[in-house]
Amino acid sequence: MANFTTLKGFLLMGFSAKPEIEIVCASVFLVLYLVALTGNILIITATSIDDSLHSPLYFFLKHLSFLDLCYISVTVPRYICNSFMHNGNISLWECILQCFAFTLCGSSEMAMLTVMSYDRYVAICLPLHYEIIMNVSTCIHGILAVWISGVISGVMHTAATFSIHFCGANIIHQFFCDVPQLLKFSCSNEYVGELGVIVFLSLVAFLCFICIGLSYMHIFSTVLQIPSAEGRAKAFSTCLPHLSVVMLFLSTGVFDFLKPQSDSPTALDFLLTGFYTVLPPALNPMIYSLRNKAMKTALRKVFKRRKV
């Protein structure tokens, strides 16, 4: 990593060179960040203090909310501060740390959604064996697997990215240290190793997508065989929030990943990246709380306790 001694940092350009527009964008991001912060903290609180939510489903949901808090906090607070301070400078080590944390949280969230889909599969397709399969040991091992996979992905991605030599201007046309933007600074074909890591992580993400898809194919085939409409509605009510979160996270992430990286990013490019980094953590709490009766009941209890 010889470039560590020659490169001191980068300049994050944000959404616009005009301070007025940048302040407006930062204000919108601040609102979304506060929404994500409040919603995810409420879910963590509700699932922690309400005894009726001490089940594997809400155990994983609590960890998903914590992941969402970490995921959005990696990029958004720094961008808000940069915009209001009119200073987009970020040091090399801060950029490395941000890249590592962002990859860790994103990979962990993908793994968490996969584990949650398996939990729903066992609950609906194998209900008589649910307590045996999804015991405390299984839940803990699932969470450990999620975090370990995230750490491995973060280390691989960050090490491969910052092992290349950077040349030319160190201006990043994004509001955080985005890896595709960093690869543009490569002096030669040294980014081939990073592309190999990207291909490997993409295959892992594709396998997670296949596992989620297979789980829901079995889930829907089982739910449709339930004779009572009430039973089908109850089963769908526990699956649809998770499926909505999966579709939101995967669609925005895949679209952002597959779209071509232009030398002069447009407003649409920034908007898509904002959707991918900010919207899932902000909308996940609303999706789960609005579609889940048990969660709404638990949140009412939380607010009643605060009033008391």
Automatic annotation (TrEMBL):
UniProt KW Cell membrane keyword: yes
GO cellular component: plasma membrane
Membrane-spanning intervals of the chain: 21-45, 57-80, 92-112, 132-152, 159-176, 196-219, 240-258, 270-290
Keyword Cell membrane belongs to the record: yes
GO molecular function, one term: odorant binding
Main localisation: membrane
PROSITE patterns in UniProt: G_PROTEIN_RECEP_F1_1, G_PROTEIN_RECEP_F1_2
Family to which this protein belongs: Belongs to the G-protein coupled receptor 1 family.
Role according to the record: Putative odorant or sperm cell receptor. Odorant receptor.
Protein name stated in the entry: Olfactory receptor
Organism: Equus caballus
